[in-house]
Amino acid sequence: MPKPAVSFQSVSKIYPTAQGGFKALHEVSLDIREGEFLGLLGPNGAGKTSLIAILAGLATATSGTVKVQGYDVRKDYAQTRQRLGIVPQELVYDPFFTVREMLRFQSGYFGIKGNDAWIDELLHELGLADKAEANMRQLSGGMKRRVLVAQALVHRPPIIVLDEPTAGVDVELRQTLWHFIDRLNREGHTVLLTTHYLEEAEALCHRIAMLKRGRIVALEDTTTLLSSASHSVLQFKTDDALPDTLASQARVTGRVVQIPAREAGDVERLLAALREAGVKVQDMEIRRADLEDVFVAIMGDDAAPQATSAPASR
Ligand SMILES: Nc1ncnc2c1ncn2[C@@H]1O[C@H](COP(=O)(O)OP(=O)(O)OP(=O)(O)O)[C@@H](O)[C@H]1O
What we know:
- 33% of the residues lie in helices and 26% in strands.
- By secondary structure, the protein is of the alpha/beta class.
- It has two domains: 6-226, P-loop containing nucleotide triphosphate hydrolases (Rossmann fold), CATH 3.40.50.300; 230-288, Alpha-Beta Plaits (2-Layer Sandwich).
- The longest helix is centred in the middle third of the chain and has 16 residues, at 171-186.
- Residues 15, 17, 22, 24, 42, 44-50 line the site of adenosine-5'-triphosphate.
- InterPro entries: AAA+_ATPase, ABC_transporter-like_ATP-bd, ABC_transporter-like_CS, ABC_transporter_ATP-binding, P-loop_NTPase.
Protein backbone atom coordinates (compact mmCIF):
# COMPACT_ATOMS: atom_id res chain seq x y z
CA MET A 1 0.00 0.00 0.00
CA PRO A 2 1.40 3.45 -0.84
CA LYS A 3 1.81 5.81 2.09
CA PRO A 4 -1.31 7.91 2.74
CA ALA A 5 -1.07 11.67 2.21
CA VAL A 6 -2.49 12.23 5.67
CA SER A 7 -3.03 9.65 8.38
CA PHE A 8 -4.99 10.29 11.57
CA GLN A 9 -4.51 7.43 14.01
CA SER A 10 -6.75 7.20 17.10
CA VAL A 11 -6.83 10.96 17.50
CA SER A 12 -8.64 12.23 20.60
CA LYS A 13 -9.04 15.79 21.76
CA ILE A 14 -10.21 16.83 25.21
CA TYR A 15 -10.70 20.57 25.81
CA PRO A 16 -10.35 21.67 29.41
CA THR A 17 -13.66 23.01 30.76
CA ALA A 18 -15.03 24.04 34.17
CA GLN A 19 -16.79 20.64 34.24
CA GLY A 20 -13.46 18.82 33.96
CA GLY A 21 -13.05 18.49 30.17
CA PHE A 22 -15.01 18.09 26.95
CA LYS A 23 -14.06 15.30 24.54
CA ALA A 24 -14.42 16.83 21.07
CA LEU A 25 -12.70 13.95 19.18
CA HIS A 26 -13.00 10.26 20.05
CA GLU A 27 -10.19 8.06 18.66
CA VAL A 28 -10.58 9.30 15.11
CA SER A 29 -8.73 7.18 12.54
CA LEU A 30 -8.75 8.25 8.90
CA ASP A 31 -6.31 7.89 6.01
CA ILE A 32 -6.46 10.37 3.15
CA ARG A 33 -5.02 8.80 -0.01
CA GLU A 34 -2.48 10.52 -2.21
CA GLY A 35 -4.28 12.46 -4.94
CA GLU A 36 -7.80 12.09 -3.60
CA PHE A 37 -10.37 14.81 -2.98
CA LEU A 38 -11.89 14.01 0.40
CA GLY A 39 -14.84 15.80 1.95
CA LEU A 40 -15.06 15.98 5.73
CA LEU A 41 -18.66 16.68 6.64
CA GLY A 42 -20.47 17.09 9.91
CA PRO A 43 -22.90 19.38 11.68
CA ASN A 44 -21.69 22.38 13.73
CA GLY A 45 -19.59 21.23 16.63
CA ALA A 46 -18.85 17.76 15.18
CA GLY A 47 -15.09 18.33 15.46
CA LYS A 48 -14.00 19.19 11.92
CA THR A 49 -12.10 22.35 12.82
CA SER A 50 -10.47 20.61 15.81
CA LEU A 51 -9.20 17.86 13.50
CA ILE A 52 -7.82 20.39 11.00
CA ALA A 53 -6.20 22.47 13.77
CA ILE A 54 -4.39 19.32 14.95
CA LEU A 55 -3.30 18.54 11.38
CA ALA A 56 -2.05 22.13 10.98
CA GLY A 57 -0.10 21.96 14.24
CA LEU A 58 -2.23 24.76 15.71
CA ALA A 59 -3.64 22.45 18.39
CA THR A 60 -2.25 19.28 19.92
CA ALA A 61 -4.13 16.02 20.13
CA THR A 62 -4.72 14.73 23.65
CA SER A 63 -3.76 11.30 22.31
CA GLY A 64 -3.13 9.65 18.96
CA THR A 65 -0.86 10.59 16.05
CA VAL A 66 -1.20 12.51 12.81
CA LYS A 67 1.20 11.98 9.93
CA VAL A 68 1.62 13.92 6.70
CA GLN A 69 3.32 11.85 3.99
CA GLY A 70 4.88 9.86 6.81
CA TYR A 71 6.02 12.85 8.90
CA ASP A 72 4.61 13.37 12.39
CA VAL A 73 2.90 16.75 12.81
CA ARG A 74 4.41 17.22 16.28
CA LYS A 75 7.90 15.79 15.86
CA ASP A 76 8.49 16.94 12.28
CA TYR A 77 6.55 20.21 12.27
CA ALA A 78 8.64 21.94 9.56
CA GLN A 79 8.39 18.92 7.22
CA THR A 80 4.63 18.69 7.61
CA ARG A 81 4.04 22.46 7.36
CA GLN A 82 5.93 22.49 4.05
CA ARG A 83 3.61 19.82 2.65
CA LEU A 84 0.35 21.44 3.71
CA GLY A 85 -1.49 24.43 2.26
CA ILE A 86 -4.18 25.40 4.71
CA VAL A 87 -6.93 27.87 3.85
CA PRO A 88 -8.32 28.94 7.21
CA GLN A 89 -11.94 29.71 8.02
CA GLU A 90 -11.12 33.06 9.59
CA LEU A 91 -9.89 36.07 7.62
CA VAL A 92 -6.53 36.89 9.22
CA TYR A 93 -4.22 39.29 7.35
CA ASP A 94 -1.99 42.31 7.73
CA PRO A 95 -3.86 45.40 6.43
CA PHE A 96 -0.68 47.29 5.53
CA PHE A 97 0.70 44.86 2.95
CA THR A 98 -0.28 44.77 -0.68
CA VAL A 99 -1.49 41.48 -2.06
CA ARG A 100 1.80 40.83 -3.84
CA GLU A 101 3.84 41.73 -0.74
CA MET A 102 1.78 39.29 1.34
CA LEU A 103 2.44 36.52 -1.15
CA ARG A 104 6.16 37.32 -1.41
CA PHE A 105 6.42 37.43 2.35
CA GLN A 106 4.70 34.06 2.63
CA SER A 107 7.07 32.62 -0.04
CA GLY A 108 10.00 33.87 2.06
CA TYR A 109 8.54 32.11 5.10
CA PHE A 110 8.92 28.87 3.17
CA GLY A 111 12.41 29.84 1.98
CA ILE A 112 11.32 30.33 -1.65
CA LYS A 113 12.96 33.15 -3.61
CA GLY A 114 11.97 34.39 -7.08
CA ASN A 115 8.44 33.02 -6.83
CA ASP A 116 6.80 35.73 -8.95
CA ALA A 117 5.88 33.53 -11.90
CA TRP A 118 3.83 31.26 -9.62
CA ILE A 119 2.46 34.24 -7.67
CA ASP A 120 1.28 35.77 -10.97
CA GLU A 121 -0.35 32.49 -11.95
CA LEU A 122 -2.12 32.27 -8.59
CA LEU A 123 -3.33 35.86 -8.92
CA HIS A 124 -4.57 35.17 -12.43
CA GLU A 125 -6.30 31.87 -11.57
CA LEU A 126 -8.03 33.39 -8.56
CA GLY A 127 -9.20 36.50 -10.41
CA LEU A 128 -6.86 38.80 -8.46
CA ALA A 129 -4.54 39.96 -11.26
CA ASP A 130 -5.76 43.56 -11.07
CA LYS A 131 -5.50 43.63 -7.27
CA ALA A 132 -1.82 42.69 -6.97
CA GLU A 133 -0.76 46.17 -5.86
CA ALA A 134 -3.87 46.88 -3.73
CA ASN A 135 -3.55 47.02 0.02
CA MET A 136 -5.28 44.20 1.86
CA ARG A 137 -7.51 46.65 3.74
CA GLN A 138 -8.91 47.96 0.43
CA LEU A 139 -10.25 44.56 -0.62
CA SER A 140 -13.76 43.23 -0.16
CA GLY A 141 -14.32 40.19 2.06
CA GLY A 142 -14.53 37.88 -0.95
CA MET A 143 -11.29 39.28 -2.41
CA LYS A 144 -9.52 38.82 0.93
CA ARG A 145 -10.63 35.22 0.94
CA ARG A 146 -9.10 34.74 -2.52
CA VAL A 147 -5.81 36.13 -1.20
CA LEU A 148 -5.89 33.65 1.68
CA VAL A 149 -6.29 30.84 -0.85
CA ALA A 150 -3.33 32.18 -2.85
CA GLN A 151 -1.32 32.49 0.37
CA ALA A 152 -2.00 28.86 1.27
CA LEU A 153 -0.82 27.72 -2.18
CA VAL A 154 2.25 29.90 -2.54
CA HIS A 155 4.67 27.04 -1.78
CA ARG A 156 2.86 24.56 -4.07
CA PRO A 157 1.91 22.23 -1.23
CA PRO A 158 1.09 18.65 -2.26
CA ILE A 159 -1.80 18.64 0.22
CA ILE A 160 -4.44 21.39 0.20
CA VAL A 161 -6.76 21.79 3.17
CA LEU A 162 -9.83 23.98 2.79
CA ASP A 163 -11.85 24.68 5.95
CA GLU A 164 -15.24 25.96 4.81
CA PRO A 165 -13.70 28.11 2.09
CA THR A 166 -17.02 29.09 0.55
CA ALA A 167 -18.92 30.09 3.71
CA GLY A 168 -20.68 33.34 2.81
CA VAL A 169 -18.87 33.90 -0.51
CA ASP A 170 -20.51 34.68 -3.81
CA VAL A 171 -21.17 32.32 -6.70
CA GLU A 172 -18.39 33.80 -8.82
CA LEU A 173 -15.69 33.12 -6.24
CA ARG A 174 -17.01 29.63 -5.59
CA GLN A 175 -16.80 28.85 -9.29
CA THR A 176 -13.32 30.38 -9.67
CA LEU A 177 -12.09 28.56 -6.59
CA TRP A 178 -13.51 25.16 -7.52
CA HIS A 179 -12.25 25.40 -11.06
CA PHE A 180 -8.73 26.03 -9.79
CA ILE A 181 -8.78 23.50 -6.94
CA ASP A 182 -10.17 20.89 -9.32
CA ARG A 183 -7.29 21.58 -11.72
CA LEU A 184 -4.73 21.25 -8.90
CA ASN A 185 -6.35 17.98 -7.81
CA ARG A 186 -6.17 16.63 -11.38
CA GLU A 187 -2.49 17.61 -11.41
CA GLY A 188 -1.95 15.38 -8.37
CA HIS A 189 -2.56 17.54 -5.31
CA THR A 190 -4.50 15.89 -2.48
CA VAL A 191 -7.45 17.94 -1.24
CA LEU A 192 -9.22 17.86 2.11
CA LEU A 193 -12.38 19.96 2.19
CA THR A 194 -14.81 20.76 4.97
CA THR A 195 -18.03 22.39 3.93
CA HIS A 196 -21.63 22.76 4.95
CA TYR A 197 -22.62 23.00 1.29
CA LEU A 198 -23.39 19.39 0.52
CA GLU A 199 -24.03 20.05 -3.18
CA GLU A 200 -20.42 21.18 -3.48
CA ALA A 201 -19.17 18.11 -1.63
CA GLU A 202 -21.28 15.83 -3.83
CA ALA A 203 -19.99 17.45 -7.01
CA LEU A 204 -16.32 17.61 -6.05
CA CYS A 205 -15.31 14.91 -3.56
CA HIS A 206 -14.22 11.39 -4.49
CA ARG A 207 -14.79 10.21 -0.95
CA ILE A 208 -16.78 11.51 2.00
CA ALA A 209 -16.03 11.17 5.70
CA MET A 210 -18.81 12.12 8.10
CA LEU A 211 -18.06 13.20 11.63
CA LYS A 212 -20.73 13.16 14.32
CA ARG A 213 -19.98 14.26 17.88
CA GLY A 214 -16.28 13.62 17.38
CA ARG A 215 -16.62 10.18 15.79
CA ILE A 216 -16.32 9.05 12.15
CA VAL A 217 -19.74 7.62 11.33
CA ALA A 218 -19.35 7.19 7.56
CA LEU A 219 -16.38 6.85 5.22
CA GLU A 220 -17.26 5.91 1.65
CA ASP A 221 -16.75 6.77 -1.99
CA THR A 222 -19.29 9.47 -2.84
CA THR A 223 -21.01 7.28 -5.44
CA THR A 224 -21.26 4.33 -3.01
CA LEU A 225 -22.68 6.59 -0.32
CA LEU A 226 -25.28 7.94 -2.72
CA SER A 227 -26.28 4.52 -4.01
CA SER A 228 -26.55 3.25 -0.41
CA ALA A 229 -29.56 5.53 0.02
CA SER A 230 -32.23 3.02 -0.90
CA HIS A 231 -34.98 5.60 -0.93
CA SER A 232 -36.25 8.29 -3.26
CA VAL A 233 -37.65 11.60 -2.14
CA LEU A 234 -41.10 13.05 -2.72
CA GLN A 235 -40.62 16.79 -3.01
CA PHE A 236 -43.25 19.51 -3.34
CA LYS A 237 -44.14 23.06 -2.34
CA THR A 238 -47.04 24.02 -0.12
CA ASP A 239 -48.35 26.89 1.99
CA ASP A 240 -50.33 24.50 4.23
CA ALA A 241 -49.30 22.84 7.48
CA LEU A 242 -48.54 19.12 7.27
CA PRO A 243 -50.44 16.61 9.40
CA ASP A 244 -48.36 15.39 12.39
CA THR A 245 -47.81 11.93 10.91
CA LEU A 246 -46.08 13.42 7.87
CA ALA A 247 -44.38 16.34 9.63
CA SER A 248 -42.29 13.92 11.69
CA GLN A 249 -40.76 12.36 8.53
CA ALA A 250 -40.48 15.54 6.47
CA ARG A 251 -37.67 18.01 5.92
CA VAL A 252 -39.23 21.46 5.50
CA THR A 253 -37.27 24.44 4.11
CA GLY A 254 -39.58 27.43 3.71
CA ARG A 255 -42.33 26.21 1.34
CA VAL A 256 -40.36 23.18 0.16
CA VAL A 257 -41.23 19.83 1.73
CA GLN A 258 -39.16 16.65 1.22
CA ILE A 259 -40.30 13.25 2.45
CA PRO A 260 -38.38 9.96 1.96
CA ALA A 261 -40.30 7.34 -0.03
CA ARG A 262 -38.98 3.78 -0.32
CA GLU A 263 -41.28 2.47 -3.04
CA ALA A 264 -44.16 3.43 -5.32
CA GLY A 265 -46.71 2.33 -2.69
CA ASP A 266 -45.16 4.82 -0.24
CA VAL A 267 -45.69 7.66 -2.68
CA GLU A 268 -49.35 6.72 -3.10
CA ARG A 269 -49.86 6.57 0.67
CA LEU A 270 -48.13 9.93 1.16
CA LEU A 271 -50.26 11.59 -1.52
CA ALA A 272 -53.45 10.11 -0.05
CA ALA A 273 -52.48 11.41 3.42
CA LEU A 274 -51.81 14.87 1.98
CA ARG A 275 -55.16 14.91 0.13
CA GLU A 276 -57.03 13.78 3.22
CA ALA A 277 -55.40 16.54 5.31
CA GLY A 278 -56.32 19.14 2.65
CA VAL A 279 -52.70 20.03 1.93
CA LYS A 280 -52.48 21.76 -1.47
CA VAL A 281 -49.36 20.58 -3.30
CA GLN A 282 -47.45 22.40 -6.06
CA ASP A 283 -44.41 21.52 -8.21
CA MET A 284 -44.38 17.90 -7.09
CA GLU A 285 -41.51 15.66 -8.15
CA ILE A 286 -39.98 12.36 -7.16
CA ARG A 287 -36.19 12.49 -7.17
CA ARG A 288 -33.26 10.29 -6.23
CA ALA A 289 -31.76 10.81 -2.79
CA ASP A 290 -28.80 13.23 -2.79
CA LEU A 291 -25.94 13.72 -0.38
CA GLU A 292 -28.03 15.98 1.82
CA ASP A 293 -30.62 13.20 2.25
CA VAL A 294 -27.87 10.72 3.13
CA PHE A 295 -26.34 13.22 5.55
CA VAL A 296 -29.68 13.82 7.29
CA ALA A 297 -30.32 10.06 7.52
CA ILE A 298 -26.89 9.44 9.10
CA MET A 299 -26.86 12.43 11.43
CA GLY A 300 -30.45 12.01 12.64
CA ASP A 301 -31.31 14.72 15.18
CA ASP A 302 -27.77 16.12 14.93
CA ALA A 303 -28.28 17.23 11.31
CA ALA A 304 -27.82 20.97 11.39
CA PRO A 305 -30.98 22.98 10.98
CA GLN A 306 -29.00 25.72 9.18
CA ALA A 307 -28.46 25.81 5.42
CA THR A 308 -26.89 22.62 4.18
CA SER A 309 -27.20 23.51 0.53
CA ALA A 310 -25.43 26.25 -1.34
CA PRO A 311 -27.36 29.52 -1.59
CA ALA A 312 -27.15 29.42 -5.37
CA SER A 313 -26.19 26.72 -7.82
CA ARG A 314 -22.58 26.33 -8.92
N1 LIG B 1 -11.21 25.76 22.96
C1 LIG B 1 -12.29 25.02 23.22
N2 LIG B 1 -12.69 24.79 24.50
C2 LIG B 1 -13.77 24.03 24.77
N3 LIG B 1 -14.52 23.42 23.81
C3 LIG B 1 -14.17 23.61 22.53
C4 LIG B 1 -13.04 24.42 22.17
N4 LIG B 1 -12.94 24.41 20.81
C5 LIG B 1 -13.95 23.64 20.36
N5 LIG B 1 -14.69 23.16 21.38
C6 LIG B 1 -15.86 22.27 21.28
O1 LIG B 1 -15.47 21.10 20.57
C7 LIG B 1 -16.51 20.68 19.69
C8 LIG B 1 -15.97 20.59 18.29
O2 LIG B 1 -15.74 21.91 17.79
P1 LIG B 1 -15.19 22.18 16.31
O3 LIG B 1 -15.01 23.65 16.18
O4 LIG B 1 -14.03 21.30 16.06
O5 LIG B 1 -16.43 21.69 15.45
P2 LIG B 1 -16.74 21.89 13.91
O6 LIG B 1 -17.21 20.57 13.40
O7 LIG B 1 -15.60 22.52 13.23
O8 LIG B 1 -17.96 22.90 13.94
P3 LIG B 1 -18.36 24.07 12.88
O9 LIG B 1 -19.01 23.37 11.74
O10 LIG B 1 -19.35 24.86 13.69
O11 LIG B 1 -17.14 24.84 12.51
C9 LIG B 1 -17.65 21.68 19.88
O12 LIG B 1 -18.59 21.12 20.78
C10 LIG B 1 -16.98 22.89 20.47
O13 LIG B 1 -17.87 23.60 21.31
